[in-house]
Specification:
It is a single chain. The chain has 141 residues and is α/β, with parallel strands linked by helices. It has one domain (21-140). Helix content is 35%, strand content 13%. The protein has four helices and four strands. It has a four-stranded mixed sheet with strand order 2-1-3-4, covered by helices on one side. The longest helix is centred in the last third of the chain and has 19 residues, at 122-140. It starts with 20 loop residues before the first strand and ends with a helix.
């Protein structure tokens, strides 16, 4: 995996990279239902939402983000809990993240699809996100 860099996301109507989709990892079937209700409450109902299975670890993000809406739903997952967003606006990203903090949902790792990351396997992305979370938590201490 190459060296990536964090890039501050603005709050404009600029659309982020990729198809208008969400890939959800590591949520139980019940949590998936709550997440779908959350997306409806913040009026992000036009996103294709798919749910990754443990068997998807070596698939690329590009392939997983292209899945049909609701694929993989209602199956519990032992993957690291994560939400990968794509094709939404910067404003929608900020709205989603700030609203999620007030929702009664488990804390996931967050990512947005990039031209660089779309060729990564899901397991590689989840590992990278875990490392980033640890580094950011250590930085705060």
């Amino acid at each position: 995996m190459g060296e990536g860099t964090f890039k501050k996301v603005g709050k404009s109507a600029k659309t982020l990279y990729g198809p208008r989709a969400v890939l959800v990892c590591g949520f139980s079937a019940n949590e998936q239902k709550l997440l779908m209700e959350f997306l409806e409450n913040i009026q992000l109902t036009d996103l294709a939402v798919s749910f990754a299975a443990e068997s998807d670890g070596e698939k690329t993000l590009k392939d997983l983000m292209a899945r049909p809406d609701q694929s993989g739903r209602d199956a519990d997952s032992g993957l690291e809990r994560a939400v990968i967003l794509s094709g939404i606006t910067e404003k929608e990203l900020h709205q989603t993240l700030s609203s999620y903090q007030n929702a009664d949902l488990p804390r996931p790792l967050w990512a947005t699809l990039t031209p660089y990351s779309e060729s990564w396997s899901l397991s590689a992305l989840l590992e990278e996100l875990k490392k980033e979370r640890i580094a950011m938590e250590q930085k705060r201490k």
